[in-house]
Amino acid sequence: MLQLSPKGVIDDILKLLDSAIANAEHNRAIPAEELYLAQAWCDEGPTRKSGQPRARGRYFRVRKRSSHMTIVLARFDADELAERRRREESTGRGASSSQRQRAERVRRSRQRQEAAHDHDHDHDHAEEAEVDETTAAPTEATATGDAPVAEVETDETPAADDATADDATTDADEEAGEE
Question: What is the pTM of this model?
Fold first, then answer.
């Protein structure tokens, strides 16, 4: 109900309620689903007084009032807690049923993955994941032309490959001629 209320103070009340639940879980080791709101009340807090000047030298007192909100959480009795859990189980709501539903979805998903991948083949998937460094890195020819050039697939056209190869040989020939 609080989350759907249009009032501005609801954010502060929700923050206080979340803090009370966290305190009960941390300090008393009580799960949140075993708690309910037993009491809630507001008391008058300190008033901040200030003033505002008015006409003819008068002074108008402004009171900024504040409040203290108190929330008391209590734990369900064992009988009532068992009844609530039974009711949540039958309606399909609650923590245990949602965990069971999630486990069932995961199990079905894993079965689909195994069925989709269940095929006969001659290779091992672990070998596919490893990268062979000798085939992954292309070898390059030296300037003298002693080492063979490995063919590497590129997106460039063959004419562009021929032009770069001609440039490399002319550079190598020019260096050989200078010596």
Answer: 0.46
Residues 6+ apart with CB under 8 A from 36: 73, 74, 75, 76
Terminal-residue alpha carbon distance, the chain: 91
Amino acid 38 reads: A
Q: Is 49 exposed, middle or buried (0-12, 13-18, 19+ CB in 10 A)?
A: exposed
- The answer to whether 3 touches 14, Cβ cutoff 8 Å, is yes
Residue-range domains of the chain with CATH: 10-47+59-114 (3.90.470)
pLDDT tens figures, 86-135: 887 777 666 666 777 788 888 888 888 887 766 666 656 555 545 545 44
Token pair 């069971």 in the structure block, residue: 100
Whether the Cβ atoms of residue 94 and residue 88 lie closer than 8 Å to each other: yes
- Tell me which residues of the chain have a pLDDT lower than 50: 129, 132, 134-152, 160-161, 163
